[in-house]
């Protein structure tokens, strides 16, 4: 099998091209350093089946953070038939050097000048034949985003692979990138024509508002508010349809069917698995919309602006602007956010960032809060409850960094590119939304079903009056009652350690109702103060096993992982305790 | 010699010397901030936040402490 790899500086469009070539769904964002793992795919090209690898971005061939080192190691160890070097055609003044550096290693190079749509708009003209002659390899102009030049690229690759000899880059021959600057400048001067002055672009105009010292923060809050409001408004009718649908299935079909079954089995299937899983499934539209809208934000270039805006604050916490972006990524899911810290070079700085990320209010926790806020607070108050939880999430993450920054003193010098704003690609937005929905459905059909089935068994075995769940509840009673959480919810919290998606399903099973009835029942048994305390605890304590596993893998330290878990459990309890007792003391 | 940190906004300058530590220098150089290139500061972040710097067609942010270690020579416009 033939092998090719996509190489290039961060944010040049490697993953976009990878998706174009392979039909894959690698994540794309207008944020340098999104890809931190090697993604692979296979495509038939000409007579061969070709193995394509999308690498993390690299600035040059030495040093760098873990993501860059991964790419270096891959290049050094893998025998490749072609290295497809993706350059940003608008930034050749600093990117041609990488082509020279790689060419000097004798790798079989093909250069793709990507973003040629932007280069054209900027009036940049490139003499590709000239460049190709000097670099000694083919040079093509493409736009991975629009698909321009991609068929030609495929054709060229197929031709090249017919005669290609696999080759492994010899990294012992790497010379410093500075050695190539003179030649780079010379190539650039000779083969690239650029208008001497550019009119102020749209990016500068938007940045004047987004990066404004006083307006920047309101713009951020507004962006986030729009994200959640839009998700909520658009998915509410869809959610209603889902609820109606599951309700109908239950009453028209499942209940009559289960009538002849032994009561234990009927209870297990209807009130256990069905009620539990369907409560969770009604959140499918929210997942889809939330991640689609998140993809729009990611692809716009806003993340880098958020990093700029927040760096001053984050620096005082021992973190940097990128850490704030990871917290934002964590709003989707904490796991990719943890992986995203690979772009941070300093180990201590990385650990401190990883300590903060699990407090980021992820979409799984959002489901619980949406449900509880909707069930227990008036429609006028519910959005404020949610908003306050987001503030608590960020405050706890930042507070944690502040508390421990002395123990993770780092000196992480960094410079981060702010790419121009770009319009999101509809196809990618759809892929993101649908991809996450599919993962959610997969989780629902395995973990959540198993979880709610177990919860039902635990709450009904040997009998409802003397169940194992009762034993567990009694055990945790002394810990949970001071924070206002009824101990029969302790089973839900324990399953929440595995995955927060199970919590709602577990609640439905414990309470013995689903959907609207569950909401009504909770409204009768929980008051606002204990409900908020429950939400605070759920927000802060260990997110899920996947997060713990990611922490372990990325930190390579069991001690750190245990510390993170213990800290979050302790903090969750203390915060909930202070809130609950404080509110009660104040007479609420 | 003035440093990048002291440069007035939108004032073009020529980069002379990078006195930052090697790892950061490597990154800045990769982003285009090299001796003899023209640089300008576009904006300064609030709360003594970072600087937004432009070199060629690349805009990037860097901390002020690092900018204090970059000697520049302002160009008359
Ligand atoms: N205008 C334009 N934008 C593009 C083109 N190709 C990619 N983009 C955009 O550039 C940004 C970066 O694309 P990615 O594919 O994530 O870049 P990458 O090289 O994989 O980035 P890293 O994984 O961070 O190294 C995204 O916002 C893309 O939509 C193109 O040909 N034209
Ligand atoms: Mg990528």
UniProtKB/TrEMBL annotation, chain A:
Amino-acid positions noted as binding GTP in the UniProt annotation, renumbered to this chain: 8-15, 33-37, 54-57, 114-117
Residue stretches spanning the membrane: 214-233, 253-274, 286-304, 324-344, 351-377, 383-404, 440-459, 465-485, 492-511, 531-551, 558-580
Record's keyword terms, sorted: Cell membrane, GTP-binding, Ion transport, Iron, Iron transport, Magnesium, Membrane, Metal-binding, Nucleotide-binding, Transmembrane, Transmembrane helix, Transport
Domain FeoB-type G: start-end pairs: 1-163
Residues noted as binding Mg(2+) 2 in the record, renumbered to the chain: 19, 23
Subcellular location: Cell inner membrane; Cell membrane
UniProt: Mg(2+) 1 binding residues: 22
Protein function: Probable transporter of a GTP-driven Fe(2+) uptake system.
Record-stated family: Belongs to the TRAFAC class TrmE-Era-EngA-EngB-Septin-like GTPase superfamily. FeoB GTPase (TC 9.A.8) family.
Protein name: Ferrous iron transport protein B
Gene source species: Formivibrio citricus
Automatic annotation (TrEMBL), chain B:
Entry superkingdom: Bacteria
One MF annotation (Gene Ontology) recorded for this entry: transition metal ion binding
Annotated transmembrane regions: none
Signal peptide: none
Domain called Ferrous iron transporter FeoA-like: residue spans: 2-74
This protein's UniProt keywords: Iron
Protein name, UniProt field: FeoA domain-containing protein
Biological source species: Formivibrio citricus
Lineage: Bacteria, Pseudomonadati, Pseudomonadota, Betaproteobacteria, Neisseriales
